[in-house]
Write a structure and sequence with these properties.
Elements: H1 11-18, E1 25-33, E2 36-40, E3 45-50, H2 52-57, E4 70-77, E5 80-86, E6 92-96, E7 104-109, E8 113-119, H3 126-139, E9 142-148, H4 155-168, E10 174-176, H5 185-191, E11 197-201, H6 208-216, H7 219-224, H8 228-231, E12 242-244, E13 250-252, H9 255-259, H10 269-272, H11 274-282, H12 297-303, H13 309-351
Parallel strand pairs: 3-5, 8-9, 8-11, 9-10, 11-13
Antiparallel strand pairs: 1-2, 1-4, 2-3, 4-5, 6-7, 12-13
This protein binds guanosine-5'-diphosphate and zinc ion (ZN).
Length: 355
Protein backbone atom coordinates (compact mmCIF):
# COMPACT_ATOMS: atom_id res chain seq x y z
CA UNK A 1 0.00 0.00 0.00
CA UNK A 2 1.18 3.55 -0.66
CA UNK A 3 0.33 6.67 1.33
CA UNK A 4 -1.69 7.83 -1.69
CA UNK A 5 -3.81 4.68 -1.39
CA UNK A 6 -4.56 5.83 2.14
CA UNK A 7 -5.56 9.25 0.84
CA UNK A 8 -2.40 11.26 1.57
CA UNK A 9 -2.78 14.73 0.03
CA UNK A 10 0.23 16.31 -1.68
CA UNK A 11 -0.25 19.56 0.26
CA UNK A 12 0.84 17.89 3.46
CA UNK A 13 4.21 17.04 2.00
CA UNK A 14 5.18 20.70 1.94
CA UNK A 15 3.80 21.26 5.44
CA UNK A 16 5.83 18.32 6.69
CA UNK A 17 9.06 19.79 5.37
CA UNK A 18 8.29 23.34 6.46
CA UNK A 19 7.60 22.20 10.00
CA UNK A 20 10.79 20.17 10.24
CA UNK A 21 8.87 16.92 10.43
CA UNK A 22 10.61 15.32 7.47
CA UNK A 23 12.60 12.93 9.64
CA UNK A 24 9.42 11.39 11.04
CA UNK A 25 7.32 8.71 9.44
CA UNK A 26 3.85 9.54 8.12
CA UNK A 27 0.76 7.54 8.90
CA UNK A 28 -2.99 7.77 9.13
CA UNK A 29 -4.98 7.08 12.30
CA UNK A 30 -7.30 4.18 11.50
CA UNK A 31 -8.76 3.67 14.96
CA UNK A 32 -8.65 5.12 18.44
CA UNK A 33 -9.34 3.59 21.78
CA UNK A 34 -8.61 5.40 25.05
CA UNK A 35 -5.70 7.39 23.67
CA UNK A 36 -4.17 4.35 21.97
CA UNK A 37 -4.08 4.76 18.22
CA UNK A 38 -3.74 2.33 15.40
CA UNK A 39 -1.67 4.13 12.76
CA UNK A 40 -1.32 2.82 9.24
CA UNK A 41 1.75 3.78 7.22
CA UNK A 42 2.67 2.78 3.67
CA UNK A 43 4.10 -0.53 4.77
CA UNK A 44 3.23 -1.06 8.38
CA UNK A 45 0.67 -0.71 11.12
CA UNK A 46 1.57 0.70 14.51
CA UNK A 47 0.14 0.62 17.95
CA UNK A 48 0.82 4.24 18.80
CA UNK A 49 0.61 6.69 21.65
CA UNK A 50 1.13 10.43 21.80
CA UNK A 51 4.43 11.77 23.15
CA UNK A 52 4.29 13.07 26.71
CA UNK A 53 4.81 16.61 25.56
CA UNK A 54 1.64 16.45 23.55
CA UNK A 55 -0.59 16.37 26.59
CA UNK A 56 0.98 19.55 27.96
CA UNK A 57 0.94 21.53 24.74
CA UNK A 58 -2.57 20.42 23.76
CA UNK A 59 -4.92 23.25 24.61
CA UNK A 60 -8.07 21.32 24.06
CA UNK A 61 -9.47 17.90 23.36
CA UNK A 62 -9.59 18.70 19.64
CA UNK A 63 -5.78 18.88 19.50
CA UNK A 64 -5.55 15.13 20.14
CA UNK A 65 -5.40 12.73 17.20
CA UNK A 66 -8.67 11.42 15.76
CA UNK A 67 -9.58 8.77 13.23
CA UNK A 68 -8.69 10.04 9.76
CA UNK A 69 -5.81 12.23 10.95
CA UNK A 70 -2.40 12.28 9.34
CA UNK A 71 0.29 12.08 11.99
CA UNK A 72 4.08 12.31 12.28
CA UNK A 73 5.35 9.22 14.04
CA UNK A 74 8.59 7.69 15.25
CA UNK A 75 8.94 3.95 15.60
CA UNK A 76 10.51 2.84 18.89
CA UNK A 77 9.91 -0.88 18.71
CA UNK A 78 8.54 -3.34 16.22
CA UNK A 79 5.01 -2.12 15.43
CA UNK A 80 5.12 0.46 18.20
CA UNK A 81 5.36 4.17 17.63
CA UNK A 82 4.99 7.57 19.22
CA UNK A 83 2.89 10.29 17.65
CA UNK A 84 4.76 13.59 17.58
CA UNK A 85 2.37 15.80 15.64
CA UNK A 86 -1.04 15.91 14.03
CA UNK A 87 -1.08 17.45 10.56
CA UNK A 88 -3.61 20.17 9.70
CA UNK A 89 -7.06 18.78 8.99
CA UNK A 90 -8.93 19.39 5.77
CA UNK A 91 -12.33 18.68 7.28
CA UNK A 92 -13.67 17.78 10.72
CA UNK A 93 -16.87 15.99 11.58
CA UNK A 94 -17.85 16.77 15.13
CA UNK A 95 -20.81 16.54 17.41
CA UNK A 96 -22.03 18.02 20.63
CA UNK A 97 -20.72 16.15 23.64
CA UNK A 98 -23.57 14.32 25.33
CA UNK A 99 -24.58 16.02 28.55
CA UNK A 100 -22.27 18.95 27.95
CA UNK A 101 -24.11 21.71 26.16
CA UNK A 102 -21.93 23.76 23.89
CA UNK A 103 -19.00 21.35 23.93
CA UNK A 104 -17.82 19.52 20.84
CA UNK A 105 -16.20 16.20 20.19
CA UNK A 106 -14.31 15.24 17.05
CA UNK A 107 -15.70 12.14 15.36
CA UNK A 108 -13.40 11.88 12.36
CA UNK A 109 -11.24 14.09 10.16
CA UNK A 110 -10.12 14.53 6.56
CA UNK A 111 -13.33 13.23 5.04
CA UNK A 112 -14.02 14.32 1.46
CA UNK A 113 -17.51 12.92 0.87
CA UNK A 114 -20.41 11.79 3.02
CA UNK A 115 -23.06 9.35 1.92
CA UNK A 116 -26.30 10.45 3.52
CA UNK A 117 -28.08 7.13 3.67
CA UNK A 118 -31.83 6.87 3.97
CA UNK A 119 -34.12 3.91 3.45
CA UNK A 120 -37.12 4.43 1.20
CA UNK A 121 -39.52 2.79 3.62
CA UNK A 122 -40.51 4.19 7.00
CA UNK A 123 -37.22 5.97 7.55
CA UNK A 124 -37.72 8.32 4.62
CA UNK A 125 -37.75 11.91 5.90
CA UNK A 126 -36.59 14.97 3.99
CA UNK A 127 -36.30 17.15 7.08
CA UNK A 128 -33.77 14.70 8.45
CA UNK A 129 -31.99 14.69 5.11
CA UNK A 130 -31.62 18.47 5.30
CA UNK A 131 -30.16 18.10 8.76
CA UNK A 132 -27.48 15.67 7.65
CA UNK A 133 -26.85 17.97 4.73
CA UNK A 134 -26.27 20.79 7.17
CA UNK A 135 -23.75 18.65 9.07
CA UNK A 136 -21.90 18.20 5.77
CA UNK A 137 -22.06 21.88 4.94
CA UNK A 138 -20.79 22.77 8.39
CA UNK A 139 -17.85 20.39 8.06
CA UNK A 140 -16.93 21.17 4.46
CA UNK A 141 -17.69 17.58 3.48
CA UNK A 142 -19.32 17.02 0.10
CA UNK A 143 -22.72 15.32 0.43
CA UNK A 144 -24.29 12.58 -1.71
CA UNK A 145 -27.72 11.18 -1.01
CA UNK A 146 -28.20 7.42 -1.08
CA UNK A 147 -31.67 5.94 -1.13
CA UNK A 148 -31.48 2.37 0.08
CA UNK A 149 -33.88 -0.58 0.22
CA UNK A 150 -35.33 0.28 -3.16
CA UNK A 151 -36.35 -3.39 -3.43
CA UNK A 152 -39.17 -2.60 -1.03
CA UNK A 153 -41.03 -0.14 -3.27
CA UNK A 154 -42.24 -0.10 -6.86
CA UNK A 155 -40.27 1.81 -9.49
CA UNK A 156 -42.80 4.64 -9.86
CA UNK A 157 -42.73 5.27 -6.11
CA UNK A 158 -38.94 5.58 -6.25
CA UNK A 159 -39.19 8.03 -9.14
CA UNK A 160 -41.64 10.09 -7.10
CA UNK A 161 -39.35 10.12 -4.04
CA UNK A 162 -36.37 11.23 -6.09
CA UNK A 163 -38.40 14.04 -7.63
CA UNK A 164 -39.55 15.13 -4.16
CA UNK A 165 -35.97 15.27 -2.94
CA UNK A 166 -34.74 17.17 -5.98
CA UNK A 167 -37.47 19.76 -5.72
CA UNK A 168 -36.29 20.63 -2.24
CA UNK A 169 -32.61 19.76 -2.20
CA UNK A 170 -30.79 21.17 -5.19
CA UNK A 171 -27.37 20.22 -6.52
CA UNK A 172 -26.86 17.14 -4.39
CA UNK A 173 -26.58 13.90 -6.36
CA UNK A 174 -29.14 11.25 -5.46
CA UNK A 175 -28.36 7.57 -5.96
CA UNK A 176 -30.73 4.66 -5.49
CA UNK A 177 -29.48 1.30 -4.30
CA UNK A 178 -30.57 -1.97 -2.78
CA UNK A 179 -28.32 -4.07 -0.60
CA UNK A 180 -30.77 -6.87 -1.14
CA UNK A 181 -30.77 -7.06 -4.97
CA UNK A 182 -27.44 -5.18 -5.26
CA UNK A 183 -29.07 -2.77 -7.71
CA UNK A 184 -26.97 0.38 -8.04
CA UNK A 185 -24.06 -0.91 -5.95
CA UNK A 186 -21.64 -1.28 -8.84
CA UNK A 187 -22.56 2.14 -10.11
CA UNK A 188 -21.91 3.57 -6.67
CA UNK A 189 -18.50 1.90 -6.61
CA UNK A 190 -17.54 3.42 -9.95
CA UNK A 191 -18.57 6.86 -8.65
CA UNK A 192 -16.18 6.60 -5.71
CA UNK A 193 -12.86 8.31 -6.30
CA UNK A 194 -9.52 6.69 -5.62
CA UNK A 195 -7.73 8.11 -2.60
CA UNK A 196 -10.80 10.08 -1.44
CA UNK A 197 -12.27 9.48 1.98
CA UNK A 198 -15.96 8.77 2.53
CA UNK A 199 -18.22 8.29 5.52
CA UNK A 200 -21.75 7.03 6.04
CA UNK A 201 -24.32 9.19 7.78
CA UNK A 202 -27.85 8.10 8.59
CA UNK A 203 -30.10 6.70 11.28
CA UNK A 204 -29.70 3.26 12.64
CA UNK A 205 -31.35 0.56 10.54
CA UNK A 206 -31.08 2.27 7.15
CA UNK A 207 -28.50 -0.24 5.95
CA UNK A 208 -25.11 1.40 6.53
CA UNK A 209 -23.31 -1.74 7.76
CA UNK A 210 -24.75 -3.83 4.96
CA UNK A 211 -23.63 -1.19 2.46
CA UNK A 212 -20.14 -1.10 3.93
CA UNK A 213 -19.92 -4.87 3.50
CA UNK A 214 -21.21 -4.67 -0.04
CA UNK A 215 -18.76 -1.93 -0.95
CA UNK A 216 -15.84 -3.83 0.43
CA UNK A 217 -16.81 -7.42 -0.16
CA UNK A 218 -14.43 -10.02 1.12
CA UNK A 219 -11.56 -7.79 0.08
CA UNK A 220 -12.10 -5.74 3.20
CA UNK A 221 -10.47 -8.36 5.37
CA UNK A 222 -7.58 -8.83 2.96
CA UNK A 223 -6.72 -5.15 2.70
CA UNK A 224 -7.24 -4.08 6.23
CA UNK A 225 -6.28 -6.83 8.58
CA UNK A 226 -2.65 -7.59 9.13
CA UNK A 227 -1.55 -11.15 9.41
CA UNK A 228 -1.39 -12.35 12.99
CA UNK A 229 2.03 -13.88 12.56
CA UNK A 230 3.73 -10.53 12.06
CA UNK A 231 1.90 -8.89 14.92
CA UNK A 232 1.62 -11.73 17.39
CA UNK A 233 -1.61 -10.29 18.71
CA UNK A 234 0.21 -7.46 20.43
CA UNK A 235 -2.18 -4.81 19.25
CA UNK A 236 -4.25 -3.22 21.93
CA UNK A 237 -6.66 -2.05 19.31
CA UNK A 238 -7.52 -4.59 16.67
CA UNK A 239 -10.66 -3.15 15.21
CA UNK A 240 -10.33 -0.79 12.30
CA UNK A 241 -12.47 2.18 11.54
CA UNK A 242 -10.91 3.21 8.23
CA UNK A 243 -11.11 0.86 5.27
CA UNK A 244 -9.40 0.99 1.92
CA UNK A 245 -11.95 -0.38 -0.54
CA UNK A 246 -11.14 -2.28 -3.71
CA UNK A 247 -12.65 0.52 -5.81
CA UNK A 248 -9.90 2.77 -4.43
CA UNK A 249 -12.13 4.82 -2.14
CA UNK A 250 -11.51 4.96 1.59
CA UNK A 251 -14.34 4.58 4.04
CA UNK A 252 -14.42 5.73 7.65
CA UNK A 253 -16.99 4.15 9.91
CA UNK A 254 -16.51 4.82 13.61
CA UNK A 255 -18.98 4.18 16.43
CA UNK A 256 -19.01 7.96 16.93
CA UNK A 257 -20.03 8.50 13.34
CA UNK A 258 -23.10 6.42 14.01
CA UNK A 259 -24.06 8.80 16.77
CA UNK A 260 -23.72 12.00 14.79
CA UNK A 261 -27.29 12.89 15.28
CA UNK A 262 -29.59 15.25 13.59
CA UNK A 263 -29.27 17.46 16.67
CA UNK A 264 -25.72 18.27 15.63
CA UNK A 265 -26.79 20.09 12.52
CA UNK A 266 -27.29 23.37 14.27
CA UNK A 267 -24.71 25.34 12.30
CA UNK A 268 -23.95 25.85 8.63
CA UNK A 269 -27.55 26.48 7.66
CA UNK A 270 -26.75 29.03 5.00
CA UNK A 271 -25.58 26.52 2.42
CA UNK A 272 -28.39 24.09 3.01
CA UNK A 273 -31.10 26.71 2.77
CA UNK A 274 -29.41 28.98 0.25
CA UNK A 275 -32.61 30.25 -1.36
CA UNK A 276 -34.27 31.09 1.95
CA UNK A 277 -31.19 32.78 3.38
CA UNK A 278 -30.76 34.84 0.23
CA UNK A 279 -34.35 36.06 0.41
CA UNK A 280 -33.99 36.73 4.13
CA UNK A 281 -31.01 38.95 3.40
CA UNK A 282 -33.00 40.92 0.85
CA UNK A 283 -35.93 41.27 3.22
CA UNK A 284 -36.80 44.94 3.55
CA UNK A 285 -37.37 44.68 7.28
CA UNK A 286 -34.42 44.92 9.61
CA UNK A 287 -34.65 42.35 12.45
CA UNK A 288 -37.35 40.45 10.60
CA UNK A 289 -38.07 37.00 11.96
CA UNK A 290 -39.53 36.06 8.55
CA UNK A 291 -42.51 34.40 10.17
CA UNK A 292 -45.61 36.56 10.17
CA UNK A 293 -44.43 39.97 8.99
CA UNK A 294 -46.58 41.32 6.19
CA UNK A 295 -44.39 42.31 3.24
CA UNK A 296 -41.56 39.96 4.26
CA UNK A 297 -39.80 38.55 1.19
CA UNK A 298 -39.44 35.07 2.68
CA UNK A 299 -43.08 34.79 3.74
CA UNK A 300 -44.12 35.96 0.26
CA UNK A 301 -41.92 33.33 -1.41
CA UNK A 302 -43.45 30.60 0.72
CA UNK A 303 -46.93 31.87 -0.11
CA UNK A 304 -46.37 31.89 -3.82
CA UNK A 305 -44.77 28.44 -3.71
CA UNK A 306 -41.28 29.55 -4.67
CA UNK A 307 -40.03 28.09 -1.43
CA UNK A 308 -41.27 24.78 -0.09
CA UNK A 309 -43.41 25.25 3.03
CA UNK A 310 -41.94 22.30 4.95
CA UNK A 311 -38.39 23.16 3.99
CA UNK A 312 -39.04 26.63 5.35
CA UNK A 313 -40.44 25.28 8.62
CA UNK A 314 -37.44 22.98 8.94
CA UNK A 315 -35.17 25.97 8.42
CA UNK A 316 -36.89 28.03 11.13
CA UNK A 317 -36.64 25.17 13.58
CA UNK A 318 -32.95 24.60 12.92
CA UNK A 319 -32.22 28.31 13.04
CA UNK A 320 -33.74 28.47 16.55
CA UNK A 321 -31.58 25.51 17.59
CA UNK A 322 -28.50 27.22 16.24
CA UNK A 323 -29.25 30.34 18.26
CA UNK A 324 -29.73 28.21 21.34
CA UNK A 325 -26.48 26.36 20.72
CA UNK A 326 -24.58 29.59 20.21
CA UNK A 327 -25.89 31.12 23.39
CA UNK A 328 -24.95 28.06 25.44
CA UNK A 329 -21.48 28.04 23.86
CA UNK A 330 -21.05 31.72 24.70
CA UNK A 331 -22.21 31.03 28.25
CA UNK A 332 -19.73 28.21 28.61
CA UNK A 333 -16.87 30.35 27.33
CA UNK A 334 -17.77 33.04 29.82
CA UNK A 335 -17.84 30.53 32.68
CA UNK A 336 -14.47 29.11 31.61
CA UNK A 337 -13.01 32.59 31.56
CA UNK A 338 -14.39 33.40 34.99
CA UNK A 339 -13.04 30.15 36.32
CA UNK A 340 -9.62 30.93 34.85
CA UNK A 341 -9.69 34.32 36.52
CA UNK A 342 -10.63 32.81 39.87
CA UNK A 343 -7.74 30.33 39.65
CA UNK A 344 -5.34 33.14 38.79
CA UNK A 345 -6.52 35.24 41.70
CA UNK A 346 -6.34 32.26 43.98
CA UNK A 347 -2.72 31.66 43.01
CA UNK A 348 -1.90 35.35 43.45
CA UNK A 349 -3.59 35.43 46.84
CA UNK A 350 -1.80 32.31 47.91
CA UNK A 351 1.52 33.89 46.97
CA UNK A 352 0.70 36.85 49.13
CA UNK A 353 -0.21 34.45 51.93
CA UNK A 354 -3.87 35.19 52.08
CA UNK A 355 -4.49 31.44 52.44
P1 LIG B 1 -27.40 0.23 9.93
O1 LIG B 1 -27.93 0.30 11.31
O2 LIG B 1 -27.62 1.50 9.19
O3 LIG B 1 -25.97 -0.21 9.86
O4 LIG B 1 -28.28 -0.86 9.14
P2 LIG B 1 -27.94 -2.38 8.81
O5 LIG B 1 -26.96 -2.48 7.70
O6 LIG B 1 -27.63 -3.10 10.06
O7 LIG B 1 -29.36 -2.86 8.23
C1 LIG B 1 -30.55 -2.86 9.00
C2 LIG B 1 -31.49 -3.91 8.46
O8 LIG B 1 -31.94 -3.57 7.14
C3 LIG B 1 -30.87 -5.30 8.35
O9 LIG B 1 -31.83 -6.24 8.73
C4 LIG B 1 -30.53 -5.41 6.88
O10 LIG B 1 -30.54 -6.74 6.43
C5 LIG B 1 -31.66 -4.62 6.25
N1 LIG B 1 -31.29 -4.05 4.95
C6 LIG B 1 -30.16 -3.37 4.64
N2 LIG B 1 -30.17 -2.99 3.36
C7 LIG B 1 -31.34 -3.45 2.82
C8 LIG B 1 -31.94 -3.38 1.51
O11 LIG B 1 -31.41 -2.80 0.56
N3 LIG B 1 -33.17 -3.94 1.36
C9 LIG B 1 -33.80 -4.57 2.38
N4 LIG B 1 -35.01 -5.10 2.12
N5 LIG B 1 -33.28 -4.66 3.61
C10 LIG B 1 -32.05 -4.12 3.83
ZN1 LIG C 1 -38.56 38.88 6.50
Amino acid sequence: MTLEDLGYPVELERYRKDKGLASFGVGRVISEHKERYLVRTADNEYDAEIIGNFRFSAKQRADFPAVGDWVAIAEYDENKALIHAVFPRKTIIERQTIGKQGEKQIIATNIDFAFIVQAVDRDFNINRMERYLTICNTSGVEPLIILNKTDLIPEHELTRLIATIQSRIKQVPVMAISNETLAGIDQLKTQMLKGKTYCLLGSSGVGKSTLLNNLSGRELMKTNSVSDSTHKGRHVTTHRELFVLTCGGILIDTPGMREVGVADAATGLEMTFKAIVRLARDCKFKDCAHTTEIGCAVVAAVENGEIDQSSYENYLKMEREREHFESTTAEKRMKDKEFGKRIKNFKKDRKSNKY
